Amino acid sequence: MPRICVAVKAVTVDQTIESIVRSELADLIEIRLDYRREPLNLNAIRVSTSKPLIATNRRKDQGGRAEEPESDRVQLLRDAVETGFEYVDLASNTEGLEKIVSELQKRRAKVIVSYHDFEHPLDIHQLESRHSELTKTGCDIIKIIGWTDCYDDNLPYLEYNKRHPGNVSFGMGEKGTTSRILAPLSGAAYTYASLESGLELAPGQTPLKALWETYRRITL
Asked: Structurally, how many domains does the chain consist of?
């Protein structure tokens, strides 16, 4: 089965754990720490599931909600690793990115470095250029996400996954659902789903159960 990561808003501890429990069909779970409205007990969140967890604390300029100082934003990700989160997702414009990647890897975390363009479709030349740039960070997984204005805009993302298997690329927006679904079938490490309809954290996400059923039928 293609791997699915469900993206969960971490608003409160109780709500986060409840969402994790409802994510049994997912292969891994992204915990969006930038949505928090209270201090989060990261250890309680970690022990609530045996599934791999991705800690993400996204800045506003990368589609997130985090408004704290950069040092505090990154420290929360360090704290997540210390409690056993297996992955950390760092935006490509994180200050001191290469140093932080190395530091987190020494703490035995796998690091995803992500780039998002919320306005423009990316062609294969732009994707390759961005890939070369992000490779220099030494991260474990490169994630490059662009926009889609039409269905043809999905093709470069799928071509990227074919060329660079084990990384992640797809298009956002209503027209990007196609590349979201096909991403792991074209070589991506995984794709993202929402917990259910109405809980999407990015435009074009498919609900977890619907995506799982789609893959089940394809792989029968």
From this structure: 1
